[in-house]
From TrEMBL:
It comes from the Bacteria. The active site is at 53 (proton donor). Substrate binds at residue 114. The record marks 81 as: Lowers pKa of active site Tyr. Residues 16-270 form the NADP-dependent oxidoreductase domain. This is Aldo/keto reductase. One of its GO terms (molecular function) is oxidoreductase activity. InterPro entries: AKR, NAD(P)_OxRdtase_dom_sf, NADP_OxRdtase_dom.
Length: 285
C-alpha cells in the first residue's frame, strides 16, 4: 500500500475503506464486522468512520473487527469525525473520548469536523490543537469544506495545522478540481474522496455502464469500479474511501491500487467525464 506524507510529517495510506451506513441494522452486524476484518487481512490499514454513523455503532463494529486481527496499532490509520453541534469546547472532548472508547483506542490518527455548524470555527480549531497536545489525536482536518471555508480556516490561529479535507468526489462530481483542489495542493492539504464510486451526489449518468469506462476495464481485465478508483487515486491524486460489505467488491476495490492507467486511458476518461470549466457548488451528502 502506498502512502502520502502529510504536512505534519505523519503518513496516511493512499487507500482506505469508509463505514458510512454500517451499524444501522442489527441483522447485518456480523457480516459488516467480517467485511472489515477481510479488508484488514487484505492490506487495508485506513478506516474512516464518524460518531454519526449508526449513532456510534460503526465505531463499535471497527473495535469488534480489530479484535480479530493481530495488526499493530501503529500500522493502522483510524479516522473519526465529530458532529458540528459537538465541536465546541463544552462537548468536543466528550465526543472524542466517547469515540475512542467505542473504538477501543487510546488515540485517533485523525479527527475531522464533519461539516460546518454554528460553533465558531476558531473554537473548534483551538480544541483540535489541545486534543493533539494531549495525545488524543495525531492530526486533525475537516470535511465538506469548500474554498471559502478553507480560506476562513487558514486565517485563524492554528488553522494552518489542518492536514486534510474530506469531500464528495467521483467522476460525475469533479467540481472540487476547479478551485478547491489547486488551493489545497498549494498548501499541502490532502484531499480524501468519499462516495468515490458515485453512489451519491448529482449523478448525470451511470458511471458503471459508461462505454468508455467498460472499454478500459476490459483492457485491464478489471471492473468498472477498479478503473474509477485507479483514476481517483493515481490521476486525481486523492485518497478514496469506498464502502462495501461484499468481499468480492472489497477485493476489487483493494486490487485497484495495482492498476496504472495510461495517458490514453486518462484522456478518454477526461473526455467522457470532463473537468469543471467553472465554479460548481460543493457536492455534499
Amino acid at each position: 500500500m502506498d502512502y502520502t506524507l502529510l504536512k505534519s510529517d505523519n503518513r496516511i495510506p493512499n487507500f482506505g475503506i469508509g463505514t458510512w451506513g454500517l451499524g444501522e441494522n442489527e441483522d447485518k452486524k456480523e457480516k459488516e464486522i467480517r467485511s472489515i476484518v477481510f479488508a484488514l487481512n487484505n492490506g487495508v490499514r485506513l478506516i474512516d468512520t464518524a460518531e454519526m454513523y449508526g449513532n456510534g455503532m460503526a465505531e463499535i463494529l471497527i473495535y469488534e473487527a480489530l479484535k480479530h486481527t493481530d495488526i499493530k496499532r501503529e500500522e493502522l490509520f483510524i479516522i473519526s469525525k465529530v458532529y458540528p453541534h459537538n465541536a465546541g469546547r463544552g462537548k468536543i472532548f466528550d465526543s472524542l473520548k466517547a469515540s475512542l472508547k467505542r473504538l477501543g483506542l487510546d488515540y485517533l490518527d485523525m479527527y475531522l469536523l464533519h461539516w460546518r455548524g454554528r460553533v465558531p470555527l476558531k473554537e473548534t480549531v483551538e480544541c483540535m490543537e489541545e486534543a493533539k497536545k494531549e495525545g488524543l489525536i495525531r492530526d486533525w482536518g475537516v470535511s465538506n469544506f469548500d474554498i471559502d471555508d478553507m480560506k476562513e480556516l487558514e486565517s485563524l490561529k492554528y488553522g494552518d495545522k489542518c492536514v486534510l479535507n474530506q469531500v464528495l468526489y467521483h467522476l460525475d462530481s469533479r467540481g472540487v478540481e476547479f478551485d478547491l483542489d489547486p488551493y489545497m495542493k498549494d498548501r499541502n492539504i490532502a484531499l480524501m474522496a468519499y462516495s468515490p464510486l458515485g453512489r451519491a451526489g448529482e449523478l448525470g449518468r451511470n458511471i458503471f455502464k459508461n462505454s468508455t469506462i467498460l472499454q478500459i476495464a476490459e483492457k485491464y481485465n478489471a471492473s468498472a469500479a477498479q478503473i474509477v478508483l485507479a483514476f481517483i487515486s493515481k490521476v486525481s491524486g486523492y485518497i478514496p474511501i469506498p464502502k462495501s460489505a461484499s468481499r468480492k467488491h472489497l477485493s476489487e476495490n483493494i486490487e485497484s491500487c495495482n492498476i496504472i492507467l495510461t495517458d490514453e486511458d486518462v484522456y478518454m476518461i477526461n473526455k467522457e467525464f470532463p473537468k469543471p470549466y467553472k465554479k460548481m457548488p460543493l457536492d455534499i451528502v
